[in-house]
UniProtKB/TrEMBL annotation:
NCBIfam families: cxxc_cxxc_Mbark. Residues 61-96 form the CxxC-x17-CxxC domain. Residues 3-49 form the Probable zinc-binding domain. It comes from Heliobacterium mobile (Heliobacillus mobilis). This is Zinc-binding protein. InterPro entries: CxxC-x17-CxxC_dom, Zn-bnd_dom_prob.
Length: 101
């Protein structure tokens, strides 16, 4: 039914093969257009889009230095302490009873 085609990448100008199995996949998914970019340019574009959106990669959280209210150990927390509530290190935080509002 499908035959391999040679297409030209609109990004880099290189020729690439659009195989019969890829064409079949496109048809099954309902895609009506042939790919305009070679696999390398598609991958580079996808990686660039993921970096712009933060897709898959979480941005590094800003951490704030604090002194644990329970044990006095220096630690960091992922929020800016306001000073009106105690702040605990990881070890001391877990056993603290929580207020249920």
């Amino acid at each position: 039914m499908f035959q391999d085609k040679v297409l030209t990448c609109k990004e880099c100008g290189c020729e690439f093969e659009f195989t019969a199995s890829e064409q079949e996949f496109y048809a099954e998914k309902g895609f009506t257009n042939e790919p305009g970019r070679c696999p390398q340019c598609r991958a580079a574009r996808k990686a660039q889009n993921n970096n712009n959106r933060g897709g898959g990669y979480r941005q590094e959280r800003e951490m704030y230095p604090v002194t644990c209210s329970a044990c006095g150990k220096e630690t960091t927390v992922p929020f800016q302490p306001r000073g009106d509530k105690p702040v605990y290190c990881r070890d001391c935080f877990q056993p603290q009873p929580r207020n249920r509002w």
